[in-house]
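Our working data are protein records whose layout never changes between entries. An example says more than a description, so a record of this kind follows.
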Amino acid sequence: MLVVGACIIVTTFIGFGGAVVSNKCMVTAFVAVIGLMFVLHFGAAISAAVLRENVEDNIKEDMKYSIITQYGNNLHIDDSNKDITESWDMLQQRLRCCAVNDEGWGLYQESNWFYEHSYIQSAHV
């Protein structure tokens, strides 16, 4: 975001400076950069529309993977697992749901967290 913001500021100054001093080269550079930015944004929009399904599937798979492998796992050792666990807990409280794609409790039963807790509970019984 910082790089894009810096590019916009530089482009604006090129256009403003070219207009103030009536420099045809600077105004042409401004128009060229604005045109390039338009083409890049247009390409990004087309890519997002075409690859939307793929991106959604990848995100859902990453979310499932985080529940199965990182949720509630080694919280005292791994800070990233603790952050992921806290994020999932907060998300579930706010959305009043659990897991991904309404898989609910079944996904947690596949997780390392469930395996560890069911093993601990069966050992205490």
DSSP finds six helices and no strands in the chain. The chain has a mean pLDDT of 83.
